[in-house]
Amino acid sequence: MVFDYIDGAAGCETGAARNRATLDAVTLRPRILRDVATRDLRVPLFGTQAARPFGIAPMGMCNLSAPGADLMLARLAAQYKVPHGVSTVASTPLEKIIEVAEGHAWFQLYFTGDGTGTFQLVERAKAAGYTTLVLTVDVPEVGRRPRELRHGFKMPFSIGPRQFIDFALHPRWSLTQLAAGKPQMANFEMDGYDFDRTESRAKATWDTLARLRDMWRGKLVVKGVLDVVDAADLKKAGVDAIQVSSHGARQLESAPAPIEVLPRIRAEVGPDYPLFFDSGIRSGEDVMRAMQQGADFVFLGRILQFAIAAGGEAGLHRLWDVISDEMSIAMAQTGQALLSTNPEPSSSQAINL
Asked: What's a Pfam family in this record (predicted)?
């Protein structure tokens, strides 16, 4: 049940298949006889240096993959100085995550209902020390994901004979979760607000964005953009960065593949406007593909949860190392010692992989 919640996509999942096929069709340009003995994987990001060109996408209820998953991701973010996207529906309080991430956390926001709880969360994120807010705009209604529905994975969540059988067939997961306690949507345990996952998110408008821009003095990213006209309007509205994303094909099955839209949006917003990417990234070469198509920074999602479920925190770090190795090898093969506008690496900063 939990695997299908993490892995599943909207409808018959042709959108997820299209994302993968379109990514696979992007080729890199091999270059030869360049000195690439030392490669530097750092990239500039909102005035800082991230040690990798990829970070952690906001994902809901990560502690379902393993108890403590949210904080495993936070520690990883702190170590590599990359952003940990903290979901509105995280299973650990947003205050705890930014503390463990040593400030390397961005708060992801859903607008729901009439916005009362939404703006409470904005104030709470501000008080906790968040300086980057990520407004996710591609879920006016939660997509229909049949794999979840077949398991009864819906809100309010109910447990019946089928779920008990599923739990019994997966004793390691069941026992560790039982020992740790049922994961909760931790950010909604606050006075005067009850979260309803089924509540419509469809009332958000450009006026909502303007109000959010006025109240949030930090960096504002809008995530879930797949239209060139929308991208141009967001730039005009004073948004600091755009994240091209189809929500991992979890919302609209017939949405275009984000990697296909990315270069068109880059052409529209210009070469210097911050442009981020997620959806379907599975390897270091995928990260390179996205950057070649115009992304300044890339976010990883499902594969991080799979690594945690399979091998805990050690598994997460092993996957991170694999993606880093793949990225470095792809840089060598394409004749790149540096990414973007990084400074020349010094002996203390260089990464030999």
From this structure: FMN_dh
